[in-house]
Amino acid sequence: xxxxxxxxxxxxxxxxxxxxxxxxxxxxxxxxxxxxxxxxxxxxxxxxxxxxxxxxxxxxxxxxxxxxxxxxxxxxxxxxxxxxxxxxxxxxxxxxxxxxxxxxxxxxxxxxxxxxxxxxxxxxxxxxxxxxxxxxxxxxxxxxxxxxxxxxxxxxxxxxxxxxxxxxxxxxxxxxxxxxxxxxxxxxxxxxxxxxxxxxxxxxxxxxxxxxxxxxxxxxxxxxxxxxxxxxxxxxxxxxxxxxxxxxxxxxxxxxxxxxxxxxxxxxxxxxxxxxxxxxxxxxxxxxxxxxxxxxxxxxxxxxxxxxxxxxxxxxxxxxxxxxxxxxxxxxxxxxxxxxxxxxxxxxxxxxxxxxxxxxxxxxxxxxxxxxxxxxxxxxxxxxxxxxxxxxxxxxxxxxxxxxxxxxxxxxxxxxxxxxxxxxxxxxxxxxxxxxxxx
Length: 439
Fold this sequence. Notes:
It is a single chain. By secondary structure, this protein is of the alpha/beta class. It is built from 16 helices and 14 strands. The chain has helices spanning about 50-65, 75-85, 100-105, 115, 125-130, 155-160, 170-180, 195-210, 225-240, 250-260, 275-280, 320-330, 330-340, 380-385, 405-415, 420-435, and strands spanning about 40-45, 70-75, 95-100, 130-135, 135, 140, 145, 145-150, 190, 245, 265-270, 285-290, 305-310, 355. Strand 4 (about 130-135) and strand 5 (about 135) form a beta hairpin. It is globular, with a radius of gyration of 21 Å. Residues about 1-25 have low confidence and may be disordered.
């Protein structure tokens, strides 16, 4: 499950555009700030932990604006929202949605550019880029999900590895070799066995190097050095037997993390959900640090996942939905409530950090140190990592559908059936032919 970034993503997106409003024809005007909002809206959030978090946060909005009624509904958004946007029936006023799939539904969303304009200087550059499609802001940016390196402190220390030395991916390989020398059964580095998550994961590594599947001009750039560096490194982990091939938070993954054969997990901040809620024997033994860099002095983080809030073009009360999201994202009262203590996360929501820069004071944490990380102050680690995320990343409309090609081919690499160059060349050809058309 995606914790902080949402529940498990599904591949796809909304390729077809239905008749009606588009981002080009339905810009949402500035709300009248002098008139107290009143009315009724329906808001969709995912089932599970985040629904409960937002339910409490929405209560802080209705307490402030008692004349607004919010029907807060838990749904399988990735399954339901695209079809609802196409049909135009039962469209919510606002919904939580994964950044990786935003571009696919952009034609069916309100253009929020005028409303977001005043906040642009205070939004993390990476996130602002993600929610901007064809020059229009189509979503209210919510979280930032910086990549971190999670590790078993007890095993790493016993092996004589200094976590502070893990500054490059070559150093991480050396550390994995050292751990295995001490514990021959160890396969220390996580290798993701889910096609979709592996694609998202590798994009984090590419983003860390300033790369992406497409450039700013929309042309395919997957067959490039950032991806080649990643796949070459992963192939080395595989060929040396230094990796545990497992699906994120599935039984094999959890078992090997608990028994100490899987020791290093370079992943998004939302991995922290596992030691808090799922792991047993190793709870309290995990720690987090910055990702290694691909080259000395390079960025020590990248983004893996993330979500934003969308307002459908056919929403009945889009202005009220905007007022709600403005409260949750851009007001101190709102984001403090979102990330503060709740029944799911007693110490506060710690699976992501806000993308709103004024909220990212390293000395004013929104969530408490985490017992499942041995009392570590993850807030400072995550905020510092968030500052290093490169901007300029573009998500193509076909990103989810590329899993059928790139995601599948990556799994062949991890099974020893394809080389890095074969994965990139084959994937580029398949994506260009099947998803992009003639160049």
